[in-house]
Amino acid sequence: FASHLQADSSWSLPVNLGSKINTTDYDGAPFCAADNVTLYFSSAGHGGLGGLDLFRSRWLGPSDTDWSDPEALPEPINSAYNDMFISVLPGDSEMFFSSDRASGGGRYDLWSATKTGENAVVENTIKPEIGLSVTASTSSLDITVELPFPDIISLSLFDEMGRQVLQISKGRFDEGESHLSLS
∠75-42-72 over CA atoms, to 5°? Predict the structure, then answer.
């Protein structure tokens, strides 16, 4: 769906992006690139290598339903596993995504892909030495992050359907163990 910021700072009613983007299967985790016309998303309904795959489509305009045919991102970005939650840096030279591929360190891991040539891509896991634990109750969320070096932390929490339910950004964490509690 798309919603537009109005002159009075309110949002327009959401508009379904149409059948070029949406299928009868799971389509989610959208990301609009810095060019404001390229949409990246995860889908189980557009074919691909298996599970959820990452796709790219360009807005052709003028309507919110005018999109190019979705194009699956190439291997090794897409895999036979579930690949989703993509974020692409301006210039399209590096992207980050989540995947449950067997070569990772857990259920879902963070990965990066970097262009090394015309179409070549190299993948690697992101900061595997970071320790993260989350304790949740009905009234609070306690997050413990263990870092081997100072860093800036931004966490997004997603429900089991892939919908973002909370985004947490924290300034610079120092080396060692740091806590972030939300009530």
Answer: 40
